[in-house]
Amino acid sequence: MDNETPYVFKVKFPSDLDYVAPVRKFVAETLTVNKFTPKFAYRSEVIVDEICHNAIIHGSRTVDATVEIECKIFPDRLEFQVNDQGGRKDDVERLKNVMKKADAHRADYLQDKDARGLGLEIVRLLSEEIKLEVGADNMTTVRVVRKREDA
Amino acid sequence: MPGLKIQKQPVELRPDLTMWKIDGPLDPESIGYIHREFDSVLETKQNFLIAEMSGVTHVSSAAIGQLMGCRQLLVERGGDLVITGVSLDIKSKLSAMGATKIFKFYNEMRTAINAYHWEVERKSEKVWLSFPPQLQFVPPVRQMVSRIARQKGYTQRDSFRIETIVDEVCNNAVEHGSEKVLKNIELNINIDREKIELEVINASDPDKIENLKALSTAMPKAPDAKMGQKRGRGLALIKMLSNSLDINFSGEGTSVHVTKLREE
Lengths: 151, 264
Description:
The structure holds two protein chains of two kinds. By secondary structure, chain A is an alpha+beta fold. Chain A contains four helices and five strands, in the order E-H-H-E-E-H-H-E-E. Chain A has a five-stranded antiparallel sheet, covered by helices on one side. Chain A starts with 6 loop residues before the first strand and ends with a strand. Chain B is about 40% helix and about 25% strand. Chain B has eight helices and ten strands. Chain B has a five-stranded mixed sheet. In chain B, strands 6-7-8-10-9 form a five-stranded antiparallel sheet, covered by helices on one side. The interface of A and B includes residues 8, 9, 11, 33 and 63 of A.
């Protein structure tokens, strides 16, 4: 592995909370075998938990909806993205508003009632970058970058 | 004080299912009302009822006993009565009454509907995974599959056997796969209440295919350790732990399909 060719992992699972714990632990364990610290691996697990939880609760409108996570492990960082199949319009608007306020570094966004319960404040606190993309039919992608702390 | 109110609503994600939105106190006076509302559910031939109880302010053992009776009738028909949205305070009271041992509780509606698919409709669920062909990634993969099996109600023993199968198949995919084509290994999991099906697909190495074919046709006989045979033990182990094993070789890829029935 070098800085240009990361290890790439993908998991696609049913939109069901039962799968979140196995998937988040899988991500943490792949980081551990790649010599990331247990602290880094655990904090990444926390982020995966929050984003997957949001994707299931707010980003799944059909009974057979799925969630997909792609992790790219570089020697100095972790990049991952979680895709859902599109939530309700009001849920997506709520998410967009929270991200917009957070991107503008507004100090009050954490106190915003819309931000509460989305877990985004935890994700932002633990990561270097977080980006939200809303595509056709409200399909949502959350991208996160975490840099290795001991590099 | 306002009395109990039960609103019968279709479930948004599955309009063919019924939800009870329960608001107010579940006190002894509400028993007759619950009974009448439940009769109307039975008339519609529904056998699965989701009780949304975020608006419940009080619970009495008499009313919970009535709900238990309703649940029992649905269970006898092959369905269930499950509870969602209950507050921490009400949940602790229900726990003290022993109701948490009888009813299934779900934090939100989607999980309750997924439980209906799994428990009543007995639908299978699919997971797809892609990982680099490196041996160090096999332990996280096998542990994830084992955790999924445990989460879906398989016993510890079954889950451990599934983990062993995944370990062997994935190790083979890495060891016998192509070293030239660095394509990720794919794992397809299809799990339901009765069985788990695993399919592992990897890029083939044309130089190793004949050896692999010879090993696979030697199954299920385990290699003779006294004779110094070291290869082929993994396949023999998979054969012993699973209910069916199929291997397909092609010029481009090898696919191993294993079925393991739930034993307990």
